[in-house]
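job 3f2a | input accepted
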Amino acid sequence: MTDATKGTKLERFTKLTGIVAPLDRANIDTDQIIPKQFLKRIERTGFGEFAFFDWRYLEDGVPNPDFILNQDRYRGANILVSGRNFGSGSSREHAPWALMEMGFKAIIAPSFADIFRSNCMQNGLLPVILDSSEVDTVMARALRGSGYSATVDLESQTVTDDQGLNASFEVDPFRKNSLLNGLDDIEITLDYEELIKSFELKRAARW
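job 3f2a | predicted structure (207 res):
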């Protein structure tokens, strides 16, 4: 197997406990997550500093003190909570790359754009859909407190905190297994490498 055919070994996602950062907006699209002028790189890295660029920085490039994710109390946050229809717009895979480089490993919202959600799962970023009331609870606690933390447990498919929250979420079994084992689609395909070779040999013989 050459380096070119190897899949990306994702970091395994089992249970995540961390600070929750709130972004209380609905319909955040991928152009807001990572604006189009920063899509010139062919690597998966180098996008984090440009995530939410138009909100995160002032015109002179100085961090915008009014943008909530710039506040010190959310420094080091690895869980993002936001409004409905997160990740709408284009299908750019750069959006989850940028969010992950910001440090986020899970996003909680009432709903996600389908393609964005799929892109997240394939890159090791867990999108968690909770009921609107549960998202409101997490959002309020993150906005109110300093250092509010929660636990996202993929194995039990729950989100909990030390204030009594115990919310369940659904996840596709195939994607759950991929995240738990740190496998992207190429790695999963390579598990069937011998069967693929056998099939190709039989097909070639028929010709």
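job 3f2a | Helices lie at 30-33, 53-56, 94-101, 114-123, 132-144, 173-181, 185-190, 193-206.
job 3f2a | closed
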